[in-house]
Design goal:
three-stranded antiparallel sheet, 2 domains, 8 strands, single chain, alpha+beta, Replication modulator SeqA, C-terminal DNA-binding domain
């Protein structure tokens, strides 16, 4: 028999078991108290650090596109917004197409932005290049699509003014998706 086993009598083991059981019971009680207090402290910290409620306007997602006469026309890309507005103007004001074209032509120093002949939009460029950088507006007219954002806005401003519409007024653009307040 080993030295440890000689000192361990059944009475001694029973006594040790009772002590361990009491310590574990007390530890479990203490742990339950700690968990309860932790919940209370956490609630107090949450209430102390919660941002104050403010009357902020409700925000909504505004996709990219344009709005005209209360109808929103959704477009994912700036060039699609540009083309959508030009097509709308050509369809809404077919008798004023010549005026729209003449006002837009004043924007370009050496380029035509609108033409009945798509090859005339890019003199000297290949047919393949021209095909990639223009789009048809209606059955007759073609539009240059190889444009910067600034040029698109200049063209649209001239085109809308020529038919009595103010860009940003009756015709609103949203060039990029964003969140807006309901007041907008």
């Amino acid at each position: 028999m080993s030295e440890c086993q000689q000192h361990e009598s059944p009475e001694r083991l029973l006594q040790e078991w009772e002590q361990l059981d009491q310590v574990i019971g007390a530890a479990e009680n203490y742990l339950a108290e700690c968990k309860g207090r932790l919940s209370v402290v956490q609630e107090k910290i949450d209430s102390m650090t919660k941002p104050p409620l403010v009357d902020s306007p409700i925000r909504r997602y505004q996709p990219s596109g344009f709005e005209y006469k209360g109808q929103f026309y959704r477009h994912a890309h700036k060039i699609d917004i540009y083309m959508g507005i030009l097509k709308l103007l050509f369809n809404e004001f077919p008798q004023q197409t010549a005026i729209i074209v003449s006002r837009v032509q004043l924007i370009g120093r050496s380029r035509s932005y609108l033409s009945r002949d798509r090859e005339a939009l890019f003199p000297g460029k290949s047919h393949a290049w021209t095909s990639r950088h223009c789009a048809q507006l209606d059955g007759e007219w073609w539009a240059d699509t190889n444009l910067s954002g600034r040029t698109m806005i200049s063209i649209l401003s001239a085109a809308t003014r020529s038919v009595g519409i103010k860009l940003g007024g009756e015709l609103k653009t949203s060039w990029s998706p964003r969140f807006v307040s309901n007041a907008e």
